[in-house]
Design brief:
The protein has about 350 residues and is mostly helical. It folds into 2 domains: about 120 residues, no CATH class; about 240 residues, MetI-like (MetI-like fold, Orthogonal Bundle). The protein is built from 18 helices and no strands. Helix 11 packs antiparallel against helix 12 and helix 14 runs antiparallel to helix 17. The longest helix has about 35 residues. It is globular and about 90 Å long. It is found in: Cell inner membrane; Cell membrane.
């Protein structure tokens, strides 16, 4: 197992390098870089896409601003634009910029945001509590509800309970998360009906002055709607996965043998079936958390005015804040691959009979 884990860690290096190369090359062909962002703001155009002069300049080109028509359209001297390029590092060839970036990343130096006067690491740490809140609670609630429900549906397969619960979770899965979030706002956050929950933030303004119990209550009061909105679609996949996994195991020979020995149904289900059936469900836990943590929170954070990593990534992409874009991409990719290894370790923890070294051999 140790040799397998070591090989998996070695594979992180070329995989991570490939991800960074692909995205860096892709960015070179996307118009509207940080230089154009600054020029658009200086001209009072606000949105960089409306400030394009011809719209043909690519990010990272050393000829950026060398076209006399482009400079004339901006009314800015060529020397100023060249100085601006130098400040952002675009005076160097793309390959040199990429190598410098990766060298800094290997030393855990992710640079500073172009537009926020703060290091990328500090920015990520500042936004992380919101994303951890959404990811952790959404994953926990999904598992706490879906696993018992899936087991119950497997035991009562084909019953009326199985039928109507399947209908409910399929409807819940079909509802877009952002639409459900808006519905919650309209109903419970003062949109048109009741003002029961707050509209934004994780805590109230007077949170520091509250007692410990008051702080806990205030925290859950604020996260109730966003966590509900981000969890609603997670029940279907996890519940049906649990149900099908248990059904597959229940039909196997060792279950019939255990029943023939006179073991109670509860003992058969939780003493024999549970460990085998839960392999795929438990092993997928890290992946589910990472999916909610990095991917599913952008719209939810925006709707509920939560300042987390999802919203940070979206704003960085719009502003072409490359240190934030590539820094968060590097960190999220690295964490994602580490989580994949953790999933394999969880397989072995749940069932020690699994040996990845023999499987590879």
């Amino acid at each position: 197992m140790a040799a397998y884990i070591f090989r998996r860690f070695l594979l992180i290096i070329p995989t991570l390098l490939g991800i960074m190369i692909f995205n860096f090359v892709l960015v070179q062909f996307v118009p509207g870089g940080p230089v154009e962002q600054v020029l658009a703001k200086m001209q009072g155009e606000g949105d960089v896409t409306s400030g394009f002069a011809g719209g043909s300049q690519d990010v990272g080109e050393e000829t950026f601003g060398s076209d006399s028509d482009y400079v004339g359209a901006r009314g800015l001297p060529k020397e100023f634009i060249e100085e601006l390029e130098k400040e952002f590092g675009f005076d160097k060839p793309p390959l040199e910029r990429f190598l410098n970036m990766m060298w800094n990343y290997m030393r855990l130096d992710f640079g500073e945001s172009y537009f926020r006067s703060i290091s990328v690491i500090d920015l990520v740490l500042e936004k992380m509590p919101v994303s951890i809140t959404l990811g952790l609670w959404s994953t926990l609630i999904a598992y706490v509800v879906s696993i018992p429900l899936g087991i119950r549906k497997a035991v009562r397969d084909g019953s009326s309970f199985d039928t109507w619960t399947s209908g409910v979770i399929i409807v819940a899965y079909a509802i877009p998360g952002f639409l459900f979030a808006i519905l919650l706002l309209v109903l419970f956050a003062g949109g048109s009906y009741w003002q029961i929950f707050p509209l934004r933030g994780l805590t109230s303004d007077n949170w520091e002055n509250l007692s410990l119990l008051g702080k806990v209550a205030d925290y859950f009061w604020h996260i109730a709607l966003p966590v509900t909105a981000s969890t609603i679609s997670a029940f279907a996949t996890l519940t049906l996965l649990t149900k099908n996994s248990f059904l597959d195991e229940i039909k196997k020979q060792y279950v019939m043998t255990a029943r023939a020995k006179g073991l109670s149904e509860k003992r058969v289900l939780y003493g024999h079936v549970f460990r085998n059936a839960m392999l795929i469900v438990i092993a997928g836990l890290p992946g589910v958390f990472i999916g909610v943590f990095f991917g599913g929170s952008i719209i939810i954070e925006t709707i509920f005015s939560l300042d987390g990593l999802g919203r940070l990534g979206f704003e960085a992409a719009v502003q072409r804040d490359y240190p934030v874009i590539f820094g968060t991409l590097f960190l999220s990719s690295l964490i994602g691959m580490a989580i994949a290894i953790l999933s394999d370790l969880m397989y072995v923890f749940v069932d020690p009979r699994i040996d990845f070294d023999k499987r590879e051999g």
